[in-house]
Write a structure and sequence with these properties.
Elements lengths: L14 E18 L1 H4 L8 E2 L3 E3 L2 E8 L10 E8 L7 E9 H4 L10 E3 L4 E9 H5 L8 E19 L15 H11 L5 E5 L2 E5 L1 H7 L1 H8 L1 H5 L4 E4 L4 H13 L14 H14 L3 H12 L7 H10 L3 H11 L2 H10 L5 H4 L1 H15 L1
Parallel strand pairs: 10-12
Antiparallel strand pairs: 1-9, 2-4, 3-4, 4-5, 5-8, 6-7, 6-9, 10-11
Helix pairs in contact: 4-8, 5-6, 8-9, 9-10, 10-12, 11-12
């Protein structure tokens, strides 16, 4: 009887893979003055600047009233190959609104063959009426991002042989769920906070472990001065303190749907940033900064800039100045009069804004 092994040894094992050699990149197209583009007839487009991905030149075509009569109620977006090529260029692409790009995983569609000066895209990218009511349109402006992956060729390469599945699978940590339940049930709670007439029961050891400020307050001088085990906090809204406690116990941002008596999400993020700074919760502070970056517009930039300066939020401050670096945005903010209070609260920041205005004039 023949055998593929010698001397009863283990059979040889090998594996290989066919890998696509790709080049990727993206281009952001910003439309300032969207309302003025609506006069573009159906079938006509506005064209982006050329950009290069995978050694080829591309451009985006923006059709404010659709690329054909059947799509006249939609915004159409197309990616076009600018080059003359002897062989079609294989590529994948995806259009996304910029404000959602960071939140959505990039999932590319099918591979398309781009012939010379030909394009692929979406006739019905978004219905115009829905778009005009969405968060994507801000101050008559919006931005879309087009991710492009060019497939140059396929190659073969050797890969490691798959290892057998482990006998034991360790699940992800659910510690945050247990601590969240501890906060919700109030089991073993040994301190009560009164915030705006609403009470919150919590655990001293958890708060002290998470925040040096809570540690000093709950195990220092305040412990001796409490009345009946109740700690009164006068300068914070109850919903903000609730979100603060939720983070302390779970390391997560309290979802909008779980907050009681909530107002605007950007206002909530501003108040929570102040609270995070007060209690030295650096991760929560950065989470609030990241969220506020998405709410910077003509109406909010002055307030957010002042907040960033007062609480030393360097990334958030850079985002505000990046927004103001656009001449159109800077003019709109000056015209709105929202910069006036910066003179009193943050004079150094106002000096930087004045310098930007000087550059704009010259």
């Amino acid at each position: 009887m023949s055998s593929s092994t010698t001397g009863g040894g283990k059979p040889s094992r090998s594996a290989s893979a066919i890998v696509a050699d790709t080049a990727s990149g993206y281009h952001v197209l910003r439309i300032d003055g969207y309302s003025r583009t609506k006069g573009t007839p159906t079938g006509e487009y506005l064209k982006s600047l050329l950009f290069t991905v995978g050694g080829h030149s591309w451009h985006i075509r923006y059709y404010p009233n659709g690329n054909k009569s059947d799509a006249k109620d939609f915004i159409s977006l197309y990616l076009y190959l600018e080059d003359n090529v002897a062989k079609a260029v294989k590529a994948q692409f995806k259009f996304r609104f910029v404000y959602k790009a960071a939140e959505q995983p990039l999932t590319l569609g099918e591979v398309h063959d781009f012939e010379s000066q030909r394009g692929w895209g979406h006739s019905e990218f978004i219905k115009r009426a829905d778009f005009e009511e969405s968060e994507h349109l801000r101050d008559d402006s919006f931005a879309v991002r087009c991710d492009v992956v060019v497939i140059n060729e396929f190659r073969r390469e050797e890969t490691a042989v798959d290892t057998p599945l482990p006998f034991v699978s360790v699940p992800q940590s659910d510690l945050h769920q247990h601590f969240g339940a501890l906060l919700e049930t109030e089991k073993g709670a040994d301190v009560v906070f009164d915030v705006g007439g609403q009470t919150f029961a919590a655990h001293r050891c958890v708060l002290a472990a998470r925040s040096p400020v809570f540690s000093a307050e709950l195990f220092g001088a305040m412990k001796e001065s409490e009345t009946g085990g109740v700690v009164r906090i006068d300068d914070m809204e109850a919903r903000v303190f609730k979100a603060l406690l939720y983070f302390v116990y779970t390391d997560l941002f309290l979802e909008k749907t779980k907050a009681e008596g909530e107002g605007d999400e950007d206002a909530m993020a501003q108040h929570l940033l102040v609270a995070a700074d007060r209690y030295n919760l650096d991760r929560l502070k950065l989470m609030c900064e990241e969220k506020l970056c998405k709410y910077i517009d003509v109406g909010t930039v002055a307030t957010i800039l002042a907040l960033a300066e007062i609480h030393h939020c360097h990334g958030l401050k850079k985002a505000c100045f990046d927004f103001l670096s656009s001449p159109a945005n800077l003019r709109a903010v000056v015209a709105s009069g929202s910069l006036k209070h910066l003179s009193g609260t943050c004079p150094s920041v106002m000096e930087e804004v004045i310098a930007m205005l000087g550059n704009l004039i010259h």
